[in-house]
Amino acid sequence: MTTHVHPDMAGGLPAPLVARTVAVDPTTLPADLLSLLPADGGLAWVRRGDGLVAWGEVARLRTGGPERFAEADDAWGDAMAHAVVRDEVQLPGTGPIAFGSFAFADDSPAGGTLIVPRVVVGRRGDDAWLTTIEVGAVAAAVSPVPTDPPRPPGAVTMSPGGLDEAGWRAAVAHAVDEIRSGALDKVVLARDVVARTAEPLDPRWVLGRLAADYTSCWTFAVDGLVGATPELLVRSEKGLVTSRVLAGTIRRTGDDDADLAHAALLAHSSKDLEEHEYAVASLTRELEPFCSSTNVPETPFVLHLPNVLHLATDVTGVLRGADASSLALAAALHPTAAVAGTPTPKAVELLAELEQMDRGRYAGPVGWLGADGDGEWGIGLRSAELDADDPHRLRLFAGCGIVAASVPDSELAESEAKLEPMRHALGSE
User: What tens digit of pLDDT does each residue of 301-313 get?
Assistant: First the structure.
């Protein structure tokens, strides 16, 4: 049963949602949860073998504009107030859940979506479970069904998106001029590249390669946005809030000794430390009203990924009360300085002028929301937007933080490094 629901309908989501979660022997599940996804698509949020995969669709809520987060959060809260839940596992991610993806910009036609799947398979350490969700019916447990292996995309060609390389370097130079004039401190400029595949794209091919190569990232697939993000916007779990800030990047060389030297340079780079400080201060400022206490490490650590090194800081806090859901927290934090700039309103205004493209849901919140409001939301980075009308076409995205010391050629090289995960994931070799 599939119900498509629009935000102007009473209640927003159908009622009552009936969910049943049962424990599953973890040894009966494949090591790669993504292999459970059907060939015609699915939903995913996995990291280091744990997480959630889902398929089928009980309901879909579309929202748009500045209130897209609040509309989705209210609709989910209303649906959970009337839900019938039998949860035999009682872990984060069990019971009824919704996967969500939201546009970066308030005026983007991409808007936002919450999807309530029919079947969810989850794993967390030594625990595993299966959840079934229906509307107004008894949810019966089902077993995962083996699927055909992912199909390779064949030859892949790339072409410029909104700006070619020369145009993007010019945009970086313009941004640097604005920063040096004192108009703002930092702006995060993104660029897109259009990929075409010889064969219709099987999203599972991309997801499997991303999950294998980027185990420390959160590999996701929600409503046509696929990727592996290293940046956790917010996790809310039983009153504890966690957020990972990434800002300041250097490309890896492939030589371990050289990369260790680069990591030391990154950790002491005034340009990258300045960029990182802006991002951490911005996130902490937005998080504090929701928390009775926060913990911000004095110095960042260097996060090692296969393609780049990042300056990273994990910010934690204790929620003040239980009213704010993980989606409400994500809405309050978005957009962070790490994906927009500082001051954020001015930076968003400038990047809209310079990028000459609609980011869609790139750099917007993507993740999942549970019945109690807890959940995990990443920033949709290292990602691609699938074309709903053309299975051979997708847009790849990358962004770079621009400050007064930025050099256009260096920023272009950094953007190429950030495009590498998706480019390699598409490779058919």
Answer: 888 888 788 888 9
Angstrom distance (rounded) from CA 197 to CA 394: 9
Query: Cα–Cα distance between 135 and 172 in angstroms, integer?
Result: 50
Query: Has 271 been annotated as catalytic?
Result: no
CATH code assigned at 386: 3.60.120.10
Q: CB-side exposure of 26: number of CA atoms within 13 Å?
A: 12
**Between 113 and 5, residue with greater pLDDT:** 113
Burial class (CB in 10 A: 0-12, 13-18, 19+), 180: exposed
Q: What's the number of domains the chain is made of?
A: 1
Domain of 248?
3-426
* Maximum pairwise Cα distance, the chain: 63
pLDDT at 2 over 70: no
Give 102's strand partners: 112
Q: Quote the pTM value.
A: 0.91
Which residue of the set 57, 134, 178, 231 is catalytic?
231
Between strands 84-87 and 17-23, the pairing is: parallel
Q: E strands, 353-425, where? A: 365-370, 375-379, 383-386, 393-402
Among residues 57, 134, 178, 186, the one annotated as catalytic is: 186
Summarised one tens digit per residue, pLDDT across range 214-269 is 998 999 999 999 999 988 999 999 999 999 988 777 777 777 778 788 788 888 88
pLDDT tens digit string along 269-303?
Answer: 887 888 788 888 888 988 989 999 999 988 888 88
Q: What is the pLDDT of residues 27-62, one digit of tens each?
A: 999 999 999 999 877 999 999 999 999 999 999 999
Residue 283 phi/psi, 5° resolution?
Answer: -65, -45
Active site residue 231: yes
